[in-house]
């Protein structure tokens, strides 16, 4: 239930319930990743309602990142809210965020997703539902643009990524707040969501409002739509590259003629995917282009030594190996 008074069905509640209903599996157990904020709380309430109607079970997983004073109390408050909504089981998982070598946001994300994996293993649930909204998608695209990350980042978040489901990617953040108000729910406001030290907060609080003001309303929706289009193109190119990799890449070797015969977007994916498969290393764009130059701009270059991988061209063949091996 969403409150003891069973509030009326408003547009925000109807839209979010519908979004959840369209992505729920037909059987088993799902978990909602619940922080207690408006997005995840609205998602939890809608999931509890829709799961009950669909005849499946719904629980919650709350991750305490231990990054703020009183985080355990916040996690417990979220757990209480989950139980009041009828979610079961409710797991509270405490994690340690190690930001050495990465930023705090990336480190927290890594720890959080590891906790989701653990929750899936412990409960046997098929999926974890997350409350990322259209606004989160727009912010992700803008951050990708600012970093020159290419289609891998600009494609944004998918509604389905393995066991991770994101039903609210077509829902605005304002709708989740309205859902909570309509349903009599009191969301928690994370102070880190307003801390300008974080790039995403600056995008949310300054950059997107400025774009909306200068270019007109609808910028966020346009950015999310761009992510959808890029994801479709990127998925198709990824599939072509993986098929080529399977057919032509063996024992760390691939013919340069094969790589030269395809467009650059496919060639560079084949190189990245091949290196990842061999050594678990993900090349950035500059590194990938350096390897591709052994195909497209060959003039007798020697072996390339890149982090975690060595590449050499011999007799029209690119040979990939771990450093120190021939």
TrEMBL record:
This one is known as tRNA(Ile)-lysidine synthase
Recorded hits in CDD domains, A to Z, give: TilS_N
Q: Which Pfam families match?
A: ATP_bind_3 (PF01171)
For domains, the record's comment is: The N-terminal region contains the highly conserved SGGXDS motif, predicted to be a P-loop motif involved in ATP binding.
User: Under the cellular component aspect of Gene Ontology, which terms does the record hold?
Assistant: cytoplasm
Task: Write out the similarity annotation.
Answer: Belongs to the tRNA(Ile)-lysidine synthase family.
Q: Which organism is it from?
A: Cryobacterium lyxosi
Q: Would I find Nucleotidyltransferase among this entry's keywords?
A: no
Q: Does the keyword DNA repair apply?
A: no
PANTHER family, per the entry = TRNA(ILE)-LYSIDINE SYNTHASE-RELATED
Q: Its Enzyme Commission number?
A: 6.3.4.19
Among InterPro entries, the record links this protein to: Rossmann-like_a/b/a_fold (IPR014729), TilS/TtcA_N (IPR011063), tRNA_Ile_lys_synt (IPR012094), tRNA_Ile_lys_synt_N (IPR012795)
Q: Name one GO biological process term.
A: tRNA modification
Q: What is the annotated localization of this protein?
A: Cytoplasm
State where it is primarily located.
cytoplasm
UniProt KW keywords: ATP-binding, Cytoplasm, Ligase, Nucleotide-binding, tRNA processing
Organism lineage reads as: Bacteria, Bacillati, Actinomycetota, Actinomycetes, Micrococcales
Domain of life of the native organism? Bacteria
- State its role: Ligates lysine onto the cytidine present at position 34 of the AUA codon-specific tRNA(Ile) that contains the anticodon CAU, in an ATP-dependent manner. Cytidine is converted to lysidine, thus changing the amino acid specificity of the tRNA from methionine to isoleucine.
Judged by the first EC level, this protein's enzyme class is ligase
**Which Gene Ontology MF annotations are present?**
ATP binding; tRNA(Ile)-lysidine synthase activity
For the ligand (ATP), the binding residues are 35-40
Query: Catalytic activity annotated for this protein?
Result: cytidine(34) in tRNA(Ile2) + L-lysine + ATP = lysidine(34) in tRNA(Ile2) + AMP + diphosphate + H(+)
